[in-house]
Amino acid sequence: MTASAPPVVLVHGFLDSPRLFRHMQAHLGAAGHTTHVPLLTPRTARGGLDRLAEHLRLFLDDTFASATEIDLVGFSMGGLIARYYVQRLGGLDRTRRLVTISTPHGGTLWSRLPLNRGIAQMRPGSAFLRDLDRDIDTLADVDMHSIWTPYDLMIVPARSSVLPVGTHEAVPVALHALMARDRRVLDLVSDALA
Fold this sequence. Notes:
With about 190 residues, the chain is α/β, with parallel strands linked by helices. It is built from six helices and six strands, in the order E-H-E-H-E-H-E-H-H-E-E-H. Helix 1 (about 20-30) links the parallel strand 1 and strand 2. Helix 1 (about 20-30) packs across helix 6 (about 185-194) and helix 2 crosses helix 3 (about 75-90).
């Protein structure tokens, strides 16, 4: 890895906090990456994923010069937040790589529970997801990777974590939350950012 590698911004998922990424930060740090983990609130996504993406944009604008290229890694809902930032909030111009881990790109049946706006946006066929899919081909301008597990019980069906752009890799991890710290996943993220 070169000294000019972009900073890596890790985007957490539903009810998560930056602590979720402690293993990933250590792993990427050992590989020479500088990582940043914003706390996006509310963690329940009550106001919607688009609002959380706006919080991400503000964090990036406050943390980095406008010409600074970045790499984004999003876990679960965080992958949709990062994707919305790239596709709708000008992130395409500064994002070099986007790696999503167990992200419900095609929605998840769990989001049928009527909890809040952000959860509803993760429903299969939601207006939010249809809007992102409308110009999904713009992601071809980003080095795009999706990492998923066929055993995911939070992203149902699990294959909805596969984005039809870029590369995708299945890792047989038994639990959704373990995807953020499984060594095989950490190695794939590191390889994707190398």
